[in-house]
Amino acid sequence: MVSMNKLAVNLVQEAIDKKDLLNIDVVKVAGATVVDMGVKVPGSTAAGIYLAKICMGGLGEVVIADLEYDGVILPSITEFTDHPIEACMASQLAGWKVSVGKYFAMGSGPARVLARKPKKLYEELGYTEEADEAVLALEADALPNEDVVKMVSDATGIKPENLYFAVAPTNSVAGAVQISARIVETAIHKLHSLGFELKTIKYGWGRCPISPLHPSSLIMLGRTNDMLLYGGEVTLVVDYEDEEKLKDFVRRTPSTASKDYGVSLAEKIKEIGMEFLYKVDPEIFAPAVLTVNNVKTGRTFKSGKINVEILKKAVLYEEV
């Protein structure tokens, strides 16, 4: 397979070539190339698509469409990957907490492979790659500084001049798009937490509404999660031997299986603050609906449901 870092570098360079069209900016920090997709510039929907593909290491496709939820029309992403474990777990998973001094960001993208963040996951996946350039996507309200560049360079073994950062805050349009484009990863990550054999997953498709924007990053954190948990739908193709066991996994995966199902994260985070994320049942972080097609038998199983009322609450929907 082609290096995900190479594929992601190509995507970053494409975005840079279109920077005026995408409403993004490019700056140099300690020799590294930092692509601002929404921190100090407006960014765009198209920039969000690039960012989502970068997070997936170039192994996924993302398009925008509209979905209707009981009269509420929301822009939505539709995505697919033919390499779901590499794209979603080895690259897209926000598995790197980039914390240097007062700077904090959640890191995604193929630079994680080189830094082995987290190490235990890569040992389980058995995935490695060699690269002389690397890309890290950051969900953050600020651009990385020189100390961040040095830390990432040391962790990946990549010289700063060969490092690329793609940055967007949660409350930007690019940030909202890339978060909704994590819907397949959300399903696979939940299955992984339940002990599912990841190597049996062959293909992944998903769709998820994109959160309307809000000026507060904190509120957007809740809104974007509500889109995934109450509006996200995933279909996986697996090759699985024990079908009764598979059906149990399908039943236990959607957000409906959580004891806290029905709680709007947007409402609770606004009321309590970010600490609510540490109080809520972690089982809730899952797609609203999961459908699994087992190529071993040809049978298909589905569990979960779309919750329109929570979606309306999350986006402050009101007919006027």
Brief overview, please?
This protein is an alpha+beta fold. 38% of the residues lie in helices and 24% in strands.
Report the span from N to C terminus.
52 Å
- If you average the pLDDT, what whole number results? 95
What amount of the residues lies in strands? 15-25%
Reading the helices and strands in chain order gives HHEEHEEHEEHHEHEHHEHEHHEEH
Q: How large is the count of helical segments? A: 13
Helix content: 25-40%
Q: Uncertain regions: pLDDT < 50 for 5+ in a row? A: none
**How are the strands of the largest sheet arranged?**
1-2-8-7-6-5
**Can you tell me the overall shape?**
globular
**Count of strand segments:** 12
Q: Evaluate the radius of gyration.
A: 19 Å
Category by helix and strand content: alpha+beta
Biggest sheet overview: 6 strands, mixed
Note down, in words, how this protein is organized.
It is a single chain. The chain is α+β, with helices and mostly antiparallel strands. The chain is built from 13 helices and 12 strands. The chain has a 6-stranded mixed β-sheet with strand order 1-2-8-7-6-5, with helices on both faces. β11 and β12 (300-304) form a beta hairpin. The radius of gyration is 19 Å and the shape is globular.
